[in-house]
User: Fold tRNA (Adenine(22)-N(1))-methyltransferase from Saltatorellus ferox.
Amino acid sequence: MSWKIPTHWRDALSSHPAPRLRGIGPRLSAVALAVPEGSVAIDIGADHGLLSRALLLAGRVRFIYATDASDAALEGARKALARGIEEGRAAVLHGDGFEGTPPGEIDCAILAGTGSITALEIVRRGLASGHRPRRIVFQPSGGEHDVRTEMLNLGYGLVAEQLVAEGQRLFMVLVFEDGTGVRSLDGVTDRFVGPFISSAEGALLSAWLDGQASWLGDLVERATDPAEAAEWRERLASITELRERTGTIR
Assistant:
């Protein structure tokens, strides 16, 4: 999911640009920089292959699989990765998961811009077919708390979380490793904010907390189901407490 950056934080964030790799913006750069150097990686839902190409150009992977269910996207990916394919360092595959890749070969799986339900289903299917990457990097388009909870249930631990600004929106990157990292989520703040995000500092956290408070406040006002309203209030209370604790209320 992405969140609109509150207007009063835009100048502060623009003065602290995020690191970028050649050919991609801050969001995908944050994903790429979470991929261990020298990995055999798979970019699931690779679209036109820009992230996969950037990983090759930066020397972060020794081999990249780019997969997508769209024929049009794969045509673009083949063009973007033509040199890597020719050199035997890349392959483009039709599918929405690990199909066509040897079980046990992939070190790092990437799911960027995919909804949490779809991304988690892809991971579960992969695990069932013998694919258990050491590291999995998510940049989900919603449901970050579901990703945290389910990945821990699957035996992975949370090793990093990052907020990144691109344009006028904020995105979140979540990184998990098999059998290590944070293995439990304590309370509402860990589940819905994240143990690493909640301990961060600076304008990115402040902007995100402001945006969350506004969004959750609107949901509370519009909720018609009592149970749903109670959940939104609980999440809003955790955000408010964190804003007060970090001094980010403006």
About this structure: The mean pLDDT is 90. The longest helix spans residues 226-246. Strands lie at 2-4, 39-44, 61-68, 90-94, 108-112, 135-139, 156-166, 169-178.
